[in-house]
Design a protein that fits this description.
Oligomer: single chain
Number of strands: 0
Order of helices and strands: HHHHHHHH
Largest sheet: none
Strand content: under 5%
Number of helices: 8
Distance between the termini: 6 Å
Radius of gyration: 18 Å
């Protein structure tokens, strides 16, 4: 399959339809379930950069095991995945704000990780701390997300 916007878009649509029938927010957000929803969203936010990074594993292992050069499609997938990881962990905004001189500030994960920013926002909204909740639905969603990201190696 050639790498075109339409092919990638169709593949992503198929992955979503086949693997993400139930999303942690499928049943809506109400005053009654807001804490539960936010704790599940926090779990997803916490997991996203790790899953995005892990999704590249099969791509490089395939290249290594088949003793071949890295294909352009893998480079493109990798650069987007790496940017998403960089953004989720606060690197992008830190460098935009401070430039290269602020590079050491990326180690302030309590301040820069999106999941930690969300924890602070949720505390303001609910007036209490919540923990990430990897419910069966959330865990299934995240594992299917990883599976979908890993399946991009056949595009």
């Amino acid at each position: 399959m050639s790498l075109t916007y339409q092919n990638i878009s169709n593949e992503i649509d198929n992955i979503i339809l086949n693997n993400f029938k139930i999303h942690p927010f499928s049943f809506g957000v109400t005053k009654r379930n807001i804490e539960s929803i936010l704790s599940q969203y926090l779990a997803m936010s916490e997991a996203f950069p790790y899953l995005q990074a892990a999704s590249q594993k099969k791509l490089i292992l395939n290249t290594i095991q088949n003793n071949k050069d890295i294909e352009k499609e893998i480079e493109l997938t990798s650069v987007v995945g790496n940017f998403l990881c960089w953004d989720e962990t606060g690197g992008h905004s830190t460098i935009l704000k401070y430039g290269n001189k602020g590079l050491t500030k990326i180690l302030d994960t309590e301040k820069n990780f999106h999941a930690n920013m969300l924890k602070k926002d949720v505390k303001k909204i609910l007036n209490k701390n919540i923990l990430p909740n990897y419910t069966n639905t959330t865990a299934s969603y995240l594992l299917n997300l990883l599976k979908g990201l890993e399946s991009l190696d056949h595009i």
